[in-house]
Structures are given as C-alpha cells and as structure tokens.
Amino acid sequence: MPSVCLYFHVHQPFRLNKFRVLSKRGPSLHASYFNDELNKHYFQKACRQCYLPANKILLNAVKEGGLKASFSITGTFVEQAKRFAPEVLESFKALADTGCIEFVAETFSHSLASLYRDSTEFREQVRLHSRMLRNEFGARPTVFRNTEVIYSNDVGREVASLGFSAVLAEGFESVLGWRSPNYVYRAKESSLKILFRNYRLSDDVGYRFGARWWKEWPLTADKYAAWLSAAEGHTVNLFMDYETFGEHHWPGSGIFEFLEHLPREARKRGLDFLTVSETAARYPAVDEVDVPFALSWADLERDTSAWLGNKLQRACFAELEGLKPLVEKAVEASGDAGLLDVYRLLQTSDHLYYLCTKSWADGDVHKHFSPYKESNPYENFINYMNILQDFKEELKRRVEAAGES
Amino acid sequence: MLGWEFPPFMSGGLATHCFYLSRELAAQGVEIDFFMPKTRQPVHVPWMNVVQVDYSSFNDFGTRVEFASFGPYYQFLRKHEKSGLQGECDEARLDPVGLDFFEAVKKYNYLCGKLVRLWHARRPYDLIHCHDWITFQAGVEASRACNIPLVATVHSTEYDRTGNLWPFDWILGIEKSGVAAADLVLTVSNRMASQLQERFGVPKKKIRVFYNAIDAAPFNCCAAREEFGFPLDSKIVLYNARLSVQKGPEFFLRAAAKVAEKEPRARFIVSGSGDLLPRLTELAVELGIADKTKFLGFTPFEEVPLLYAMSDVYVLPSVSEPFGITVLEAMAAGTPVIVSKTSGVSEVVKHCLTVDFWDVYEIAEKIIGVLNYGVLKEEMGSNARSEAGQLSWDKVASQVKWFYGEALAGGRARA
Lengths: 405, 415
Known about the structure:
heterodimer; A: alpha/beta; 17 helices; globular; B: 415 residues; alpha/beta; four-stranded parallel sheet; 14 helices; 13% strand
C-alpha cells in the first residue's frame, strides 16, 4: 500500500490598481500600483471561506493523530495576512507548532524568476522566502516547489545548487511516459529527488469534486480512501491549491466534510501520511527523468503558456526581467529598499496570468480566477504595462537624482 | 425582400447587410426579388432580381399609379450619402419638385406596397422580409394584401438613431406598428431584443436574434499611410461612422484632445458625413487639435479597407449601437478596436477594448495604451482577424433561412 503525500499551496497576489497615465501618480508607489482595498476584500473573504475553517479541520485531524501534510505559503500571502487578517497567520502557526506540518520553499512573491536567463533574482527570492518561513514558522525547508510547479532540468540544477534535497513537479505523461507518478524519481544527472503529482487523483478533489457531470459524483472520503489504498507504487502525491477547500468548491459541496473524514477513512485502511521530505527520504529514486522543457500544473498544456503564451505576456515578462539592473542601481543610488519590494510584488505570476488570451475553455478558468471582472486581457495588459513603465521611469529618476546630488 | 439602400448606393450598415444576406440566401436556394428605390444607375446583381421602384415600374402591369409630385430617387440617395438619414435637407440638391426625405419614404412605401402585390399575383411569394422602419409600411401593407407572413428586421430604432434624445414620433409609430404586424421580428443583438420588448412591447417569443457578419477578404490589404499627408512617424486614430449623435463623434474628439496632450505623434481621422459636421469642425478648433485632425467626408465602400489598414486604432464611441458592423471591418483588417459597451457587437466579439461612451478619459487611456504598446496591436490584431473570420455571412443566412421556416410554419398554423 502506498503512503499518501498531501501538499497544499497557499497564495494570494497583490492585485493591481487601475493605473491612469493621464493623471498624476501619488507619492507612494505601493499605493499607486496595488489596490489594497481589493486585496483586503479578497483576502478576508478567502480567510472566512477557506483558510480559517480548513485550518481548524486540519488541526483537529492532526491532534487526533496520524495526519501529516505539507504547505507552501507565499511571501505575498504572509504580508497580506499581517496587514489584513493576523488571526489567519496565528492559525497557520498553530498548525506549524504541532510538528506534523512541513513547510516547502519557493519564490517569495510567486514569481517566474526561475525562467530568467540570469538566476540571481531567483536565488534571492528563494532565500528571502526561506528566511520568511524561518522567522514566521520556525521552519527550515529542505524541499522546493517552484511557482505553479514549474519544473525543468534547468530549474532542477538551480534548486539542487541551493541545497534542496527534493522538488515537486507535475506527473505528466509528456515526461513520465509509461512511468507512474507514484514513485520517487531523480533529476537528470543529479541526486535531487523529484516528487511527481498524481494529477488524476489530485484533480478528483481539486477540480472534479463538485462536478455533477462526473460519474463518480458525489465523491465521499470513504470511496476516495479506497482508491488511494488501491493505488500501486510507493506514494500517492496529492498536490493542490489550498483554496480548493471552500473557494474552488463552496462549503455546500461537502468539501469540508470530505476533508474532515478523509484522515479517519485513510487510517481505517492503514494508509500512512508522510510529508514531502519524509516521502523523499523514505523511498529510493527508481529512475532518472529528463525534463528538457518547462512543465507546470496549469491548464491542459501543462507548460508555461498560461503566463507566457502570447506576445503581451512575453513583452511584460521581458520588461520585468530587464528591470533588475535598474532596480539595483536605483536602490543603491537612493538607499530605498522599498523599490526592491515593489519590484518583487510586480513579479507575481498572477499579473501575467490575467493577460492570457488562449483557448476559451482554459480562458474561462482564467476569467474565473480574475479579480478584474470587468476587464479583458488587453485592458489588463495596458494597465500592467502602464505600471511597469511608470516604475521604470521612477527608477530612472531616482538614479538621475542621485547622480546630480 | 424590401430594402432601402444597396451598394453602391449606401450610407451605412443596412446596405452591407442586404447585399451579403441576399447573396448568401440565394446561394442557399432562396429565390429573392429585392425591392428598393430607383437609383441614378440601375443596380444589378447576378443572384437575384432587383426591382427598382418608381412610376415606370408599373408599366409592365398596364396600370398607372397616381402619387403627386413623385420624383426620381437618386437625389435623396445623394443627399443621404452626403448627410445621413437624419440629415437636414440640402436645398440645392433637391429636385425642382422639392420632395423631402420623409415624403420620399412615404411614396416609396406606397408604391412598393402596391408593386409587391402585383408581382405576387404574377408569381406568388412565400413571405415578405422587410428591413427597418423605412420599408415597414410597404411590408405590412403587402403582407396583408397578399396574406403571406411578414418578417421584419430591426437594424436600429429611432431611439438609437437619435441617441435617445429626440425620437421622432412619426417614425416611432411606424416602427411600433411594423413590429406588431410582423410574424417574426429579427434583430441584431440581445440589447436590441430587450429594447424591442421594453419599448415596443414585442413578445419575446416573436423575436429572433442574429449577429451581423463580415466578408473579411477585402480587408486583408495594405495601405500607405503617407496618403493622409501626416508625418511618417505619426500614429493614426480613426473614427469611421456617420457624424450623428448616435455614433458619439464628439466623445471621439474630446478623447482625441487628451491623447494629443500625451502623445504628440497622434493624428486623428474623422471619416463619415452627417449633420454634426459643422459642430465637429468647430469643436476640433476649440480643442486645439484642428491641425491634427482630418475630416474626410463619406468614404466609399471600396476605400474603407484602406482606411483601416492605415490606422493604428479604430474608435467607435456610440451612444447607442444596435450592432456596429464597422467593428468587424476593423477587426478583419487587424486594426485594434475600442468600442462602447452599449453596442451589439460587443456581445459577440471578445478581442476588442470596450468603454463607456461618455468616459472620454478612459477612451483616451485606451487609445494611448494601444498607440504606446505596439505588441498590443500585433496580438489583438491577429486574434481579432481570426475572430472576425469566424463570423461569416453564410452562417447568418442559414439562421435567417431557419427563421423564414419558422415564420412560414407559424403562418400555416394561423391559416
């Protein structure tokens, strides 16, 4: 019987303000670029609907015994929690204190920095995030998950050189071929272990749980635990957004009851829960997997096209990547480290996600998650690019001002 | 089918619609006689019989129809080309008898109604399809006289054309009785359908919605922008619609002024004719953009594709736009579009930018966005092209043919 590796991703972006080029910008960059009213609204809503009730259920399950789970929590989430809902941070700390929860490393602001040609920014963001985990939760992460589970040989090399022992990836056939995701693998020419997401079993909960068209609907904890115990291999890796509970599936769908009963049903069948690092440590790597192109867990393509699929997205991405030297110069010239913070928040991949124009089926999902209900990808592009250009001008001004004095 | 204008005699979307719809219906096996006013040169198309109505039309039937002081139509059409349907009479252009536009409509409808009946007696029609108020009276009369179903398409209402400001009761009356008498009312967007329900009390089950389409081929062209005489590095913002309250040209100019402040290379083209022309030229001076704005007058059918090809962005800030075929034209040409939210076309296309027509700041913001970021034009243009390519007239014709079937079935059930 395999063990079960539960992993949840917790993230909220700093949503952008409507930025007008015809009116003069206020003095605060953060207030001009980010819409904290909107952020507060979404954050508090997500706390009520998802984080607080789900944390409570997990905490009880851990105390009952047997449950272990892993979390990745982005820096942008923690910053917003401090501002808008400190109680949610406390409830994650309470989970951390049980010792049954493991924290996973990633980029601080949920960025695509791993895809930049120069790895400096990526490495800085990962260090920043690890430092945050240590300060907030006393955690020392040894497993890495990249933004949107983006993984390739190149990412693997960087991650290994940062000292991580394992990394998460999408268990997609394009790289696994006939091989099952239910084993631990090894990165190409490296000892870095890879845990592949079992996307069928993960999406049964994350995506299909509330779907009445699905022949397995309604999914009960009992039935699901039976599927898990019947799975072959060493481990079933269930990776999903934490917002699955209460946001993607509303409480009326029975998702919280499912979460509550799953650990008990699993225990009845003798299933064992392991955290990501325990899974990587317990099982030997059975094979090496070559991932020449970036793989992610998004959309049907499982590639980076959700963020870099069209010219608008690539233009903004190039802009972001190119800003780095100017940001450094401006920080040095003005001594204002806040510029770096703004730069990081602008890199959150969600901003690029809302510029997606691809196939309408996927596009619907993008729209579903978009906080900018009234606008389309083109409008979002104009707004985002306006902000990036304004930021660039500001950086140049800072550098020039320092040069003059 | 009863119409008012047909290429090359045209002032707006109605002619385009009748041209393509009739062509594709004919291709799908529908036999059509198309009735329209007499024009200077006869209209001929290979796919249907075009009956051009005036006194001589009755000669074949050995009858004479008396209607005092009925003159040739081309004068109205010429006037109509110049100043649009709402145009005030240009005295110099009127024929010596001094007919005005409304008089002409009355007479056309009177004669057309009688003539359809005569043709029907010779070779019976299955149904009558009329377009807009301008043909409704003839349609209603002929369908009664021949006892065959009436299908009426509403492309716009008097409320739309006047921007809801001063609707003309006489026209509203014709529209109301026309849609009441019709067995089936076709219209071009959901917002029009709800307008017909709310304002004319048309029952929902009698209304069918279809969206206009585009023949994309002519719009796949290149054009040299030097032809406007603007500097080579200029960025061109286009308005191409009648200069009437309905289309919001004032909002265009006001937004243009804001764009000019921020983007000195921007130049503005106003293509179209209409009663607001004098007011708009004054406004351009007032706003200080007269040197950057060109008023082209009415652009003929065949030159329109060049206009889009030369422009960087097309703006249609209509106050009330039942559909907006020009949006599809610009999209087919790969030119980014900014269109008001109150337009039918925005129900069916996604690859465009939408605005509130009164929000000149926002219109300007979006224009600047498109002008500043070339990549937006590339991405939007290619997506818009393929989206417009999906909207073909043969699909519209199959829908309309289906609606004909419904009207006929309804007519039989009634009989």
